[in-house]
Write a structure and sequence with these properties.
By secondary structure, the protein is α/β, with parallel strands linked by helices. Helix content is about 45%, strand content about 15%. It has two domains: about 210 residues, Glycogen Phosphorylase B (Rossmann fold, 3-Layer(aba) Sandwich), CATH 3.40.50; about 160 residues, Rossmann fold. The protein contains 16 helices and 14 strands. The strands form two sheets. Strands 3-4-2-1-5-6-7-8 form an eight-stranded mixed β-sheet, with helices on both faces. The two termini are about 15 Å apart.
Length: about 375
């Protein structure tokens, strides 16, 4: 198959793990012999075997705006001129690929970026939504015009893919089109229990970008309670700063937790299993999660999870951890202390976590994606010519 994947972001030098789940899907499909073009608003142009990644630049935007002025003006009514020019720049790259190659599948990731560009191409397309649309709707972050355009994208798609039943319920409020749930997958050959322990003391671990949505501040408040109860325990937080690092550092300093809490900007993907395996529990009280791949990664390494009981998190965690009510600091602290002091519970949760994680092998996801793509080609293939 010749596959065109359109996204907002793909990993690049400054953001090595940006939308890494989209990249991993493209990479795995390429490794199976398919020719894949993955284009994005922000990424670095490069080739990796059968995978060709192409990033949009200012030149694409300027030329696109002049070459497709009607599309630019049309989009500007919904998103403003600056965003419209940016989207048309990505559209220009997609058009060049379609003109040069026979593409079998167009898969636009995220309704408001890859999905929208796919819609503009006026070819049969799939939309894969990862949760930003539903989160933005909930927070009132989309204008009426943006919602109106999003509905067009959804209603004109031949199929919509998402990674949780929670997101499916949300998306179905805006379209009558079929929504297929395919859970995220991880590389179980990489994420597995490690024998080495890199922590000298019992340590909680959290992995996630330092922003308000990931809610590390509640984690620190709960950890403070656990420490003040006399427990000798540490906390390691791994994540790039997205505006919250200074706030977290101030909390740590003001509550005399400097010797107990360490923030690490980033860890290579291949080194994460060692951190997961060494921690007594993985804790991330996110306020919104499309699915939560990090929970699966931690559980695959035998690390019990503590997370908020909301959105798709219960689908991911299953019985491989403890779920608490959002914003309930005491409940979060109690769960952390339970796992810390109860070795039997920790061992039982670790066993269940490994079992739960095995449901989310990335190879199973790619099998399902391939199956759907093949069915799609049988129905719509002739319209791609």
């Amino acid at each position: 198959m010749n596959i065109l994947i359109i996204s907002s972001l793909l990993p690049y030098r400054e953001l090595k793990y940006a939308n890494i789940f989209v990249y991993q899907q493209a990479k795995k499909l390429a490794e199976r012999g398919h020719k894949v073009w993955a284009i994005a608003i922000h990424t670095e142009t490069r080739k990796e075997g059968n995978l060709e990644i192409i990033g949009r630049n200012k030149f694409d935007c300027i030329i696109g705006a002049f070459r497709y002025p009607l599309k630019t003006i049309h989009l500007a009514k919904y998103f403003g001129l600056k965003r419209a020019i940016g989207y048309v720049g990505l559209y220009r790259i997609a058009r060049k690929i379609l003109n040069k190659h026979k593409i079998d599948i167009i898969d636009g990731h995220w309704i408001g970026s890859g999905g929208m560009v796919s819609y503009l191409l006026k070819k049969p397309y799939i939309v894969t939504e990862h949760g930003l649309f539903c989160e933005s709707i909930e927070k009132g972050g989309l204008s009426k015009k943006e919602i109106e355009f999003s509905k067009k994208v959804l209603n004109n798609a031949k199929l919509i893919i998402t990674e949780s039943f929670n997101l499916k319920d949300c998306i179905e409020k805006f379209t009558k089109n079929k929504v297929e749930v395919i859970h995220y997958g991880i590389d179980l050959s990489l994420f597995r229990p490690q024998k080495e322990n890199i922590f000298k003391k019992p340590t909680f671990l959290s992995v996630g970008s330092l922003n308000k949505r990931k809610n590390h501040i509640d984690l620190l408040k709960a950890f403070k309670i656990v420490v003040y109860l006399g427990n000798d325990v540490n906390l390691v937080i791994i994540g790039r700063d997205e505006g919250e690092k200074e706030n977290l550092k101030n909390f740590i300093k003001n509550n005399k937790l400097t010797k107990k809490v360490k923030i690490i900007d980033g860890v290579k993907n291949e080194n994460l299993p060692l951190y997961y395996s060494s921690a007594i529990a993985f804790v991330l009280p996110s306020l919104h999660e499309g699915f939560g791949t990090v929970f699966i990664e931690a559980m695959a390494c035998g690390c019990p999870v503590i997370a908020n009981n909301l959105y798709a998190v219960p689908e991911a965690v299953g019985d491989g951890g403890i779920l608490v009510e959002p914003r309930n600091i005491k409940q979060l602290a109690d769960a952390m202390e339970r796992i810390l002091i109860d070795k039997k519970l920790r061992k039982e949760l670790s066993r269940k976590a490994i079992k739960q994680a095995k449901k989310f092998d990335i190879e199973k996801r790619i099998d399902k994606i391939e199956e759907i793509y093949q069915q799609y080609i049988k129905i719509y293939g002739n319209y791609m010519d």
